[in-house]
Amino acid sequence: MTPMILFRWQRALPALLAAFLLLGGSGCAMVTVKQVASSDYLVNKRADVLNTGKLSPASRETLSAAGLDESQCEKDFLVCRSTLLMTDDLNVEQRLSTLSELWVKAALALTPKKQAANEPPMSDAALDAWLEAARYGYAYLFYSGRSPSDRAFEDRQTQVRDYYNYAAEKAAVVLFARARAAALAGEDYTKPVSAGSWTLASDFQRLSLKSIPKQLVPAGTVSFVGMRSTYRRDGFGAELVMVMDPPKLVVPAVAAEGAKAETAQAQASKDEQEEEGVRRGRRHQHDDSVPEYSEMSSINVTALLRFEGNTLEDVMRTRQVLLDGYSPEATERITLHGEEVPLAGNFTAAYGLWLAQSGFATQSLRTLFGMSEGIGEPHIYLMQPWDPNRRIIFMLHGLGSSPEAWVNLANEIMGDPELRQQFQVWQVYYPTNAPIALNRYEIANAFNDTLQHFDPNGSTRASKDMVYIGHSMGGVLARLLVSDSGDVLWNDLLANYNLKGERLKRVQSKLGPLLHFKAEPNVERAIFIAAPHQGTDIAGNKVGRLIGRLVRLPLTILGKFEDVFLALAQAEQQADGTAKPKIPNSIDNLKASDPFVKAAAQLPITPGLKYHSIIAQRKPELAVEKSDDGLVPYWSSHLPGALSEKVIISGHSVQETPQAVLEVRRILHQDIDEVGTVARP
Question: How far apart are CA 513 and CA 508, in angstroms?
């Protein structure tokens, strides 16, 4: 470099440096590119205070536009709130959605993470924060200038809906607790309650509650072991479970010698009552202390918080709130402020809670072996509130079992949107130690009494085109319920005993109604699952005989039928004269050699009934015809004339396998296609 060139660079350097400094001090950003993984993108896009504890990017952007940040709002929430409300450059949606999220964050800080039994209830300050969060969410959804349908695909609306739903859940639990306490103190359950500056009213009229609920459980706070799936519907409102006191099904204790100690006069009086019952088309005298039917003691509820007012200004000023309760099964959509809104719903939580709290597992075994705290008569459970527009699926469990046998199948039916729209599930819980003929009689009466209660004229859709599903002994009972006995069973009895005069009259008065029956009307289809229609050799082998000896009949049955079987014992016996009649239990009736099951297997199924078989095969290497499920052989489960027969590699509890569940769903969807649908209101 020549001296002249060096001199020129020295003279130009200060000017270049000044220009560089000028550019650097001008505030021009130096932008660089950073690669973001798709997973991080989704997290950043949807992260918010509910899933991270930090405000969402949308709220942080709004705060930044107002000259605020999250840490400032944590230090002085009131100033932060006022600044947002007074910043005119922010649009209404930005302000309302951000304020809803800020109130959620404040409420979370004021609410204990886990409420202990000895801790005081939620403070008014926490409740106020949840109500404010719900109020701003409500205002955003319905009073911000655009309708929810206009924002249907926006992530921000989904976030704000979640803020509202979560806040409504928290507030609903507190409001319920205060309303229940007032009701137990003798006050009106629906009377508004005060909390700080708020006045909160509740409306549960749509739920048709029969008593004061004992608990309100957020559906999202419970999960279930033993249930494969949880079915819900996204939408507006808090998903809750209202828990009621369950009905008392235990028969009052009777002294063992009670039946024998009865006087002739008392017995005659009972006989007159029972004969009168038969004349009225009823079974023997029912113990009115034990109800024949009930809904599940847990009810699915979707709760809304409605804020009084017709304008945004009204909603932001009001201190009046209404808690509205809906059945998600009965109501799918509602109209709010001129907008049709889908209701949220959880269709599994109530069912799971009911089963978990039922005690069925222990009680059913106590019943089978004749121990205390068992049940003596069938009970019909409605899996949802009565709906006259949904057809009935009636489910019958098997030996030593209970409604728990249907845990996954019933959940899948209630979780399937199309099946849920067209069907309602009823289940029977019955004493599986009783003779099959008696159980068929009792179940038929309990079912018909229940249907008569809800639909006295038999005019609703629910009373027509019903579907019966039975597993194991429940399948045998289901088959008998859709069969005509004619005189077959009665004549079979008369062929074995020489009954005349008073003895015949006494036997006929008590056993006649059990052995003469018509098929249940209006049953359109039946599904038999692992059902021993012709009995099983297992019941007659050494193990079966041992279990049979352990089975004990309820004292109520012994008292009602002991005289009848004494009359049979006094009559002329079978040809060899060695058999002394006893009241058969369910195990006796499941023997392949049992006279009743042999005669019952020949009864004709009602003409026109569509029926299907699902059969389990324990050992796949065997030919189907020679197989069994560990308890029931194929030859006993197989029914000629079935529209379909599905053989599944499984043990006897095949009804709970995914393959069986899918097959039942297939049949039910086919049924809807054939029978037709009913438009939902």
Answer: 8
Band of the pLDDT at 257, cuts 50, 70, 90?
very low
Which residues have C-beta within 8 Å of that of residue 305, sequence separation ≥ 6?
131, 134, 138, 164, 167, 168, 171, 172, 321, 322, 323, 324
Q: What is the pLDDT of residue 497?
A: 77
CB atoms within 10 A of CB 90: 18
Q: What is the pLDDT of residues 655-669, one digit of tens each?
A: 999 999 999 999 999
Which residues are CB-contacts of 350 (< 8 A; sequence separation ≥ 6)? 219, 241, 242, 296, 298, 299, 300
Taking a C-beta distance cutoff of 8 angstroms, is the pair 234, 345 a contact?
Answer: no
pLDDT at position 17, please? 56
Q: How far apart are CA 469 and CA 463, in angstroms?
A: 16
Domain match, 171 and 264 both: no
CB atoms within 10 A of CB 501: 7
**612 strand-pairing partners:** 527, 644
Q: Contact 353/218 with Cβ under 8 angstroms? A: no
The two structure tokens encoding residue 75: 């230090």
Both 262 and 240 in a single domain?
no
**Distance, CA of 333 to chain centre:** 20
For residue 292, give the nearest of 432, 436, 426 by alpha carbon: 426
Asked, for residue 561, whether it belongs to a domain, the answer is yes
Q: Strands, DSSP E only, in 443-581?
A: 466-471, 523-529
Q: Which domain holds residue 371?
A: 258-286+359-673
pLDDT at 126 over 90: yes
DSSP codes of every residue in 16-77: HHHHHHHHHTTT----------HHHHHHHHH--HHHHSS--HHHHHHHHHTT--HHHHHH-H
Q: Distance of CA 271 to CAs 84, 454, 564, 605, Å?
A: 81, 30, 12, 33
The number of angstroms, rounded, from the C-alpha of 183 to the middle of its chain's C-alpha atoms is 27
What dihedral do alpha carbons 355, 359, 365, 367 form, nearest 10°?
Answer: -110
How many separate domains does the chain show? 2
**Count of CB atoms within 10 A of residue 605's CB?**
17
Contact 298, 346 (CB under 8 A): no
Residue 253 inside a domain? The answer is no
CATH number assigned to the domain comprising residue 378: 3.40.50.1820
* 34 within some domain: no
Using CA atoms, how far residue 390 sits from 190, 349, 407, 415, 555, in Å, is: 30, 21, 21, 15, 38
Tell me the per-residue pLDDT of 549-585, one tens digit each, with 9 for 90 and over: 555 666 566 666 767 766 666 665 544 455 555 667 6
Secondary structure (3-state) at 343: strand
Band (pLDDT 50/70/90 cuts) for residue 193 is confident
